[in-house]
Write a structure and sequence with these properties.
alpha/beta; five-stranded parallel sheet; 24% helix; 16% strand
Length: 458
């Protein structure tokens, strides 16, 4: 760093699991973090899926640097074998961690722009010697301008779900039917949400963990409420890998979720509608909805539509930074080949760090879910490793930044993404030809497992 940035903090965007872990690692390195959270409390996004249970037990969802920070506060580590819900994760770990970080975390602070001081993205002169300027809008509408020595964007992708349209654009009529379309796993404990689906026909669009979770929940509701049925809308056909790794998954809870979705179909609580790429949503004469596919196929008699087709990064406030992003995934160019679902979908990726996350804009990093752009299967332990490596790089310890310090489990299945319309046997052949792997150093005595939110598709 140069004298122009001396004394300035490393600004972290987002007080979620990875943003808070980044702050803990930065403090451990003797750097000053400042975490800006758009919501009124820590982990706003996780609170949005508080009813969903993680795939991994407590033993695998606590960052080591964060635990060191929490221990002196009297924090008690939860039972390592228990599986928390998103709400548990917030109440028993994430909010206490934010509290332990104290003055390093600010709430109701939405980042609306990041740039170099006095330099738009065109200007080269002395660019790397300038601090970052960060524009922030408070909950009351007031604005402020902060300076930072580096920026670590851990804001995630929760606020920007993919639309229903198969071409990446909202389907015709999607906005007009907004009161009947949701983009989150329904919380059927909520009486109002339960009433929307009980005894109704709900289309569930998507093939990831979120869709599995929704199908399993609606199947349980169907056991209690006659007439409840799910129409599972898939853009491709059913193959051996559609339901994930099953019993071969190194995370049993993740494998069981896919099997629960399969059971929902086999027991008649859900009907699979394959090869259906939505182009339009139309109101029916009876007040219900009809989905229309690109080929003209129609599925009628729908009361609700739950769109779980993945997430995408919000890059709107980073337009003045020189980011090196893959033109398909919107992920860092060095990371993209490792996670490209057009090439492989084995449910894991070689751990990576600052080198793969770097951009032409020095000391600017996207970490966590946002670093994956539009790719699925992000794992929380991947994010913790990213945070550790980036903190080391910003502290000047490039040897530690380059070191790999964990291994990750696999789903037990390859394929499923692969070629757009290839037969199943082609999709399952040689799908995991990622670039050469770095040497992996396993922590602990057993396999590490990731935490998985419904946003991650893992």
């Amino acid at each position: 760093m140069t004298s122009d940035t001396t004394g300035l903090p490393v600004l972290v965007i987002g007080a979620g699991p990875i943003g808070l872990a980044a702050a803990a690692h930065l403090l451990e390195r003797g750097l000053e973090p400042l975490v800006l959270e758009a919501g009124p409390s820590a982990a706003t996004a996780v609170r949005g899926w508080s009813h969903v249970r993680l795939f991994s037990p407590w033993a695998e969802v606590v960052d080591p640097a964060a635990e060191k920070l929490l221990t002196p506060t009297g924090w008690t580590r939860p039972d390592g074998a228990a599986y928390p819900t998103g709400g548990d994760w917030v109440a028993r770990y994430l909010q206490p961690l934010a509290d332990a970080l104290g003055r390093h975390v600010r709430y109701d602070a939405r980042v609306t722009g990041v740039a170099r001081a006095g330099r738009d993205r065109i200007v080269d002169a002395d660019r790397e010697q300038q601090p970052f300027t960060v524009h922030v809008t408070r909950a009351d509408g007031t604005e402020e301008r902060l300076l930072a020595r580096a920026v670590v964007d851990a804001s995630g992708t929760w606020s920007t779900p993919n639309p229903l349209g198969a071409d990446g654009l909202p389907a015709l009529g999607e906005r007009a039917a907004a009161d009947r379309i949701s983009y989150r796993v329904p919380d059927l404990r909520d009486p109002a949400v339960r009433a929307r689906h009980a005894g109704k026909r709900t289309a569930v669009v998507g093939t990831g963990a979120s869709a599995f979770t929704a199908l399993a929940a609606l199947a349980d509701l169907a056991e209690q409420e006659p007439g409840t049925h799910a129409v599972w809308v898939l853009r491709r056909g059913l193959t051996g890998s559609t339901y994930g790794g099953g019993t071969a998954d190194q995370l049993p809870a993740r494998g069981a979720l896919g099997l629960a979705a399969k059971a929902a179909v086999e027991h008649g609580h859900a009907t699979a509608l394959t090869g259906f790429r939505t182009a339009a949503v139309e109101p029916s004469a009876d007040g219900r909805l009809t989905l229309v596919a690109e080929d003209g196929t129609r599925t009628e008699g729908l009361d609700e539509v739950v769109v779980l087709t993945g997430l995408r990064p919000d890059l709107s406030f980073l337009t003045e930074l020189r980011l090196g992003l893959d033109d398909r995934l919107q992920a860092p160019v060095a990371l993209a080949p490792l996670i490209d679902p057009n090439q492989h979908s084995c449910g894991t990726v070689y751990p990576h760090g600052a080198a793969e996350l770097s951009h032409p804009e020095q000391d600017a990093y996207l970490v966590g879910m946002k670093s994956y752009g539009r790719a699925p299967t992000f794992l929380a332990l991947t994010g913790y490793e990213q945070a550790r490596s980036v903190a080391a790089a910003l502290a000047g310890d490039h040897e530690a930044a380059a070191r790999v310090e964990l291994t990750l489990p696999e789903t037990g299945v390859c394929g499923g993404a692969g070629l757009y319309d290839a037969p199943a046997e082609e999709q399952n052949d040689g799908c995991c030809g990622a670039p050469a792997a770095p040497q992996l150093i396993t922590l602990g005595t057993g396999p590490s497992g990731p935490s998985c939110s419904p946003t991650g598709g893992c």
